[in-house]
Automatic annotation (TrEMBL):
Domain (Alpha-D-phosphohexomutase alpha/beta/alpha) ranges: 7-44
Gene Ontology BP, a term: carbohydrate metabolic process
Superkingdom, natural source: Bacteria
Family: Belongs to the phosphohexose mutase family.
Record's protein name: Phosphomannomutase
């Protein structure tokens, strides 16, 4: 998915399957983690 219309001025939002999908969510999360470079990560669900 190369459609980047999900990036707005102050947030990321879009229609699931059209502007956002699992792949783009994974890429955004990965890039954010690389940007922060945390020493420890805690996940919950």
């Amino acid at each position: 998915m190369n459609n980047l219309t999900c990036f707005k001025a102050y947030d990321i939002r879009g229609r699931l399957g059209e502007e956002l999908n699992e792949d783009i969510a994974w890429r955004i999360g990965r890039a954010y983690g690389e940007y922060l470079k945390p020493k420890t990560i805690v996940l919950g669900g």
